[in-house]
């Protein structure tokens, strides 16, 4: 898989944990998850399968040091596995060609030669490795459905002018998508992430929920009773 990878980033000095990665590792994971998202779009994947691929990737490297395996190979296997989990199956050939074009813009699709089959076998073998490391726990509850519910509820809560003049919904979805560049998706509950990105979107535009000052509880606790946001 060296032919499909970018330059080695093997400067990390600690194994990742549940509280986040050291900065060098975080930069690697940011770049690789960006690859997953862009490849997912080119492969025609919907948002949930792409989110599952990112979650599989992050969860794998919460267990394994990033130096142990090529992160881009793991990412390609995560895409392949996520397609199966979310019932949007992908062909390994399509994943390989999209990845090859990502690393070598303008290149032609790979011929079905020995190099292609080596890459294809690497993806399949890596998929089995990922499944073993994650103990076959590759189904995830994503924040998307919660955020959709919260946005619909908040839209009816806010006055129409505040909602129409600020792109709260667009910003919240963008923040949720960007959150998958890091390991938040495997460190926090889905509904907490949904509330957090919505809270941040409101703060960005200075929008306050009506009667928030007089309420007995903060508005976000109406959605998730155990959520605490500083």
TrEMBL record:
Region (Disordered): 1-22
Domain Cyclin-like: 34-132
Species this chain originates from: Myotis myotis (Greater mouse-eared bat)
GO biological process terms held by the UniProt record: regulation of transcription by RNA polymerase II
GO molecular function: cyclin-dependent protein serine/threonine kinase regulator activity
Protein family membership: Belongs to the cyclin family. Cyclin-like FAM58 subfamily.
Domain of life: Eukaryota
Family annotation (SMART domains): CYCLIN
Protein task: Activating cyclin for the cyclin-associated kinase CDK10.
Biased composition regions of type Acidic residues, renumbered to the chain: 1-14
Signal sequence, renumbered to the chain: none
One Pfam family, short name: Cyclin_N
Protein name per its UniProtKB record: Cyclin-Q
Keywords recorded for this protein, A-Z: Acetylation, Cyclin
């Amino acid at each position: 898989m060296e032919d499909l990878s970018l330059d080695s980033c093997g400067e990390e000095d600690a194994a990742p944990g549940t509280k986040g990665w050291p900065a060098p590792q975080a930069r690697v994971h940011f770049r690789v998850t960006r690859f997953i998202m862009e490849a997912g779009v080119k492969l025609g994947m919907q948002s949930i399968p792409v989110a599952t691929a990112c979650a599989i990737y992050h969860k794998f490297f919460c267990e394994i040091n990033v130096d142990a395996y090529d992160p881009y190979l793991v990412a390609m296997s995560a895409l392949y596995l996520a397609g199966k989990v979310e019932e949007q199956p992908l062909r390994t050939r399509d994943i390989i060609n999209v990845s090859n074009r990502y690393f070598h813009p303008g290149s032609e699709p790979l011929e079905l030669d020995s190099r292609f089959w080596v890459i294809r076998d690497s993806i399949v073998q890596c998929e089995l490795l990922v499944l073993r490391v994650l103990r076959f726990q590759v189904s995830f509850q994503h924040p998307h459905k919660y955020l959709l519910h919260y946005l619909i509820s908040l839209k009816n809560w806010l006055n129409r002018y505040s909602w129409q003049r600020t792109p709260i919904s667009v910003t919240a979805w963008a923040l949720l998508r960007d959150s998958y560049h890091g390991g938040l998706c495997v460190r926090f509950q889905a509904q907490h992430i949904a509330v957090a990105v919505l809270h941040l979107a409101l703060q960005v535009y200075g929008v306050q929920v009506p009667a928030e000052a007089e309420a007995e509880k903060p508005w976000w606790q109406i959605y998730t009773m155990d959520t605490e946001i500083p």
